[in-house]
Write a structure and sequence with these properties.
The structure holds two protein chains of two kinds. Helix content of chain A is 30%, strand content 20%. Chain A is α/β, with parallel strands linked by helices. Chain A has a single domain, classed as Rossmann fold. Chain A has an eight-stranded mixed beta sheet, with helices on both faces. In chain A, helix 1 crosses helix 6, helix 3 crosses helix 4 and helix 5 runs antiparallel to helix 9. Chain A is globular. Chain B is an alpha/beta fold. Chain B contains 20 helices and 22 strands. In chain B, the strands form five sheets. A seven-stranded mixed beta sheet of chain B has the order 11-10-12-13-15-14-20, sandwiched between helices. In chain B, helix 6 crosses helix 8 and helix 17 crosses helix 20. Chain B is globular. The chains are: A alpha/beta, B alpha/beta. At the A-B interface, strand 1, strand 2, helix 2, helix 4 and helix 10 of A face helix 1, strand 9, helix 9, helix 11 and helix 12 of B.
Chain lengths: 349, 612
Amino acid sequence: MNTMIDEVVTKELISPIKYSAKDFSSDQDVRWCPGCGDYAILASVQRVLPDLNIPKEKYVFISGIGCSSRFPYYMNTYGMHSIHGRATAIASGLKIARPDLSVWVITGDGDGLSIGGNHMIHVLRRNIDVNILLFNNQIYGLTKGQYSPTSETGKVTKSTPLGSVDMPFNPAALALGSGGSFVARTLDRDPKHMQGIIKRAAEHQGTSFIEIYQNCNVFNDGAFFQFTEKETKSDSVVFLEHGKPLVFGKESDKGIKLDGFSPVVVSLKDGQHSVDDLLIHNEKDSTLAFILANMTYHPELPRPVGIFLAQDRPKYEDEVERQIDSAISKRGRGQLEKLLNSGDTWTIQ
Amino acid sequence: MDKETRVLDEVTIRFAGDSGDGMQLTGGQFTNTSAVMGNDLSTLPDYPAEIRAPKDTTYGVSGFQIHFGATEINTPGDHCDVLVAMNAASLKVNLRSLADGGIIIVNTDGFGAKNLKLAGYAQSPLSDGSLSKYQLFQVDITKLTNLTLADMNLPQKIVDKTKNFFALGMMYWMFNRVPENTLQWIQDKFKKDPELIEANTRVMKAGWNYAETTDVFAVKYEVKPAPLTPGRYRNISGNQATALGMVAAAEKAKLPLFLGSYPITPASDILHELSNFKNFGIKTFQAEDEIAGITSAIGASFGGALALTTTSGPGVALKTEAIGLAIMTELPLVIVNVQRGGPSTGLPTKTEQADLLQAVYGRNGEAPLPVVAASTPSDCFNAVFEASRIALKYMTPVMVLTDGYIANGSEPWLIPEVDKLPDISVKFRKDPNNYLPYLRNEKTLSREWAIPGTPGLEHRIGGLEKQDKTGNINYEPENHDLMIRLRAEKVERIANDIPLAKVEGNEKGDLLVVGWGGTYGTLKTAVERKRKEGKSVSHLHLKHLNPFPKNLGEVLYNFDKILVPEINMGQLIKILREKYLIPAIGLNKIQGLPFRSMEIELKIDEVLGGKK
């Protein structure tokens, strides 16, 4: 249907111009605290976008409220820094109205899982093709240090001087439970891994949900150091790679095996197990994705990082377009004159 | 025998029964037929909040009132002249709306011992003399319907569902209505089930024949066509008109229409209607909640769609923060509030006008918003079209206020000619040179609409305070002061772009009755009656409630007294008093019901004292 929109926007979905990371950097000073994990995420996104070959004007970054939500101001793209928790809903409306755009949501554990939890589960269930980057620092930063829905139980903060009594969300499991078709986890301190995941998310047809472990060096410093620092990382993290066995450890000497439906750690050195016994990751398997996501917070298991699930499923906005096309082919393109004059009419002479 | 025919100028009929008795359908058919016969009319459905309340209880009563005439009809009628009561409960609930000397037609089968007990009658009103001041007609509609269909061997459940057509047939005879329209409707409605066509047709004809042959009815009535403006008409409810108005606005704006909405009584029908128009390229999004309803619309607006969200008062409360975002980002958006009884969940199916202050003032910070109100069912079309025009031209959210009364009520609508609807299209910014997101049009103060996908216009907007012109985040005291004033001034300047206030009646006088929204027909009727009595009274009905028409002050100062009737505790009156420092008098009724003309007339008499 030809509208005023068609008169201004770029029709091409592939850019004839080759961009660099710098092209995506805006003229605004970045105002995050020095040392914040957000810097690494910003740099990674700016590095990945040129590889996607999408015209720059097609990108839109939508955020809610929180430290991470300042992100769109630093991107030289279209953007909206909206209101607390609603970025996913705004992005949904935008993507449904304009499927030609590449729509990104920048949110945090408070913005996306607390005040915006409802919109989060519904965007995932609908499978609208937006890319959600959830910066999880397990704390409220912008309001200066209250516990968040991902803070560990017992967290002592200004609002929980005796420790929090809430059980934290496991974002990956929540996203899977909501019907998310692409669910992944990555680390702010592993830019190479992060960029790979962001690229995969961008290419995924449907909602992509990436939980990024992000260090808040002011209010929750070191929350993820066990998973991100050299000394402990290899023994504490298992990287999920499609088609490959789940091996981890400094010397790749440990693996994950399924005991019934429960993952257990086995040694590859004790002579009792070999790589052949290990669980092979399959990112198309949603049952397996749940099992892997539920390793999170398990005290005896390494933290899974990578793509839990990448499944093909119809995109909401495509279905909307399909219904419109089918209505037009069945009933003809709508005529206002005819519509106004429909139903029982009569003429007064 | 030949029966007497009496000619009437106007009649009000109320169909009442259990919510399963099909009274809305019966009333709707009577309405369509009367409209096609050229009567002017106004209708009011009155249905319970419960979907299927326990059968035969008073809270399960469903009613439909139609006022039709050979003259101009502006209200569904203060009182009904004829009450059709299918059971005891419906008589009990509706008797108080029947005029003295009025006609009651009851289905006697609905007055058995159990019915009476459920309705709370100690003894039958049909035999205790309590209805002696009315003309009572007793017909065993259930039995007659059963006899009519006896040879068809239909399940009793289906037979029961046809008895409303018996009542309709009797009323068609009594008021000389042509049956063809409804017979055709039956054909279309049940085209997949010939048995139902046969059954409903037979029962309706049986009702007609019964009325004609029995001695019970001695008189029939005729209501001649009304002198309506020539043209093509259809009957339309407020919610239908709202939906069509938005389709028309999108067409005339050359933009795709996006509706983000969450189901809520009494606004859901707008969502239903628009969801049917997919072949217009309209996208309707049933969101997960009210907040997602409006925020998805804001997202679509950022993308260049004509964005709409529809709701009722509780929904507006939830959308409030997002309305502030649309004000701050200066994106066009139409918000329709079909007002219902409040506060909180209140009276979902009843009408009220108590969200005006919420619309004009109800946000955090200084957040001015244009407000437009619809005055009749068909005026909803004009109201949303006008709201779309303002939203697009001034880059602002606009609130449209309708209410449960006009949303569900219907009236004949002179169908507008598409070519005569104004072009309300706006141009998106295309030129990448010297673009600043918050540069303003000198005249309207609106910023330009630049949409994602346009090369070279990449920019960021948001809810934080903007720097003048650049739109960058800015916390400087002087800038905040300037931006607050600019946003206010932008809305104020809309007053230069809307029609002047025009009174109906003399421009000077003893009393001006000022109203807004769904009270239009009632105020007009009351004022006209008083003028005929020689009283110096005029009527002003406001469509634009923010900003007001430029000349409103002058218009008000031309009258000695100002009376402001509202279905609330006095909201417009607060704004008028504050803005024009006038000692206006309020008339307030908060019963979930529209005014009756008589109530306004009595108040006019009281305010004017003995004055002629």
